[in-house]
Amino acid sequence: MNAILVQAMLGLNNGAFYAMLSLGLAVIFGLLNIVNFAHGAFYMLGAFVALIGLTQFGGWIGVPDLQVNFWWALLLAPLVVGLIGMLVERTMLRRLSGLDHLYGLLLTFGIALVLQGFFANFYNTAGTPYPGKPEILEGVTDLGFMMFPTYRLFALVFSLVVCFATWFMIERTKLGAILRAGTENPKLVEAFGVNVPLLVTLTYGFGVGLAALAGVLAAPIYSVSPLMGADMIIVVFAVVVIGGMGSIMGSIVTGLSLGMIEGITKVVYAPASSTVVFLIMAVVLLMRPAGLFGRE
Asked: Which of 28, 110, 203, 233 is the most exposed place for a label (fewest CB within 10 A)?
């Protein structure tokens, strides 16, 4: 039982990353109808922005001692990657508006390959450790039933706060109502003086910014690698499908739940831990094709 509890907590930590990534995917698909296969690449890009800011940024601007520490990276990486995402939306994705989802999928898949190949030219695909974990988050915290790494606990709590704050903004605020209305009936919303194209661009930037934020949080735990997004995106798409494409709460709940299930499976039957998510996806699609929280 103790081993199960330990793995459940570690799985919940992984589930928090699944939730943040699937949340960004759900925001982009639910509000913009774009199947963003480049989401994993933006997650990777967030981690690399944090790594480069810590190790190379000072040398680039001629101030070797200047570093972008972890706390600043949490703020700056989502902004930088969000701006890149907005540029992608304005220059490429907007041209596919009204076309079949397959075109957006192929374009974003190509973008992911380009970004992955670019960083693979300069960094080891086996991964580069991120050395900037704050000292205050070093060590372990006593949870009663286990000693849990303090940084992992911080990443879990921080991810949950971001996820539920995003859900509240989209589902319970006036801004969220305008966002939803702008995607369902853009002509009507524009008649009320709302700049819908700008709204779409900002929404896409926000979605990929969430992926970058998850990348910064993951950097001190996993090695920063050009392949880290490709390794994660398949599982995250499964999470989104199970929760329901476009469902904000579905992405959060499903991401956390599947992370725990994956962790517990490592104790019960370890060989199945890498496939249990896809087995659950198959069962859910057979019983409820729209996903657990999705609409038919």
From this structure: 110
63 CA to centre of own chain: 32
47 belongs to a structural domain = yes
Give the 3-state secondary structure of 225-240: CCCHHHHHHHHHHHHH
Burial class (CB in 10 A: 0-12, 13-18, 19+), 47: buried
**Rounded (10°) CA dihedral 147, 152, 243, 282:** -70
Contact 221, 10 (CB under 8 A): no
Q: What burial class does residue 173 get, using C-beta atoms within 10 Å of its C-beta: 0-12 exposed, 13-18 middle, 19+ buried?
A: exposed
Question: Does a structural domain hold residue 134?
Answer: yes
Dist. CA 76–CA 87, nearest whole Å? 17
Under 8 Å between Cβ of 24 and 239: no
Query: What residues pair up with 142 in beta bridges, in sequence order?
Result: 147
Any domain includes 6: yes
Ordered DSSP codes for 233-263: HHHHHHHHHHH-TT-HHHHHHHHHHHHHHHH
Residue 263 within a domain: yes
DSSP 8-state symbol, 124: -
**DSSP per-residue string spanning 143-168:** -SSSEEEHHHHHHHHHHHHHHHHHHH
pLDDT of 199: 87
Number of compact structural domains in the chain: 1
Strand ranges inside the chain, DSSP E? 140-142, 147-149
Q: What is the CA radius of gyration of the chain?
A: 19
User: For residue 50, what pLDDT is reported?
Assistant: 94
Could you report the average pLDDT of every consecutive run of 10 residues in the chain (296 residues)?
Answer: 82 91 84 84 95 84 80 95 94 83 88 93 88 91 86 94 92 86 81 86 92 94 90 88 86 92 90 90 90 78
Contact at 8 Å (CB) between 242 and 286? no
Query: Can you give the pLDDT at residue 296?
Result: 63
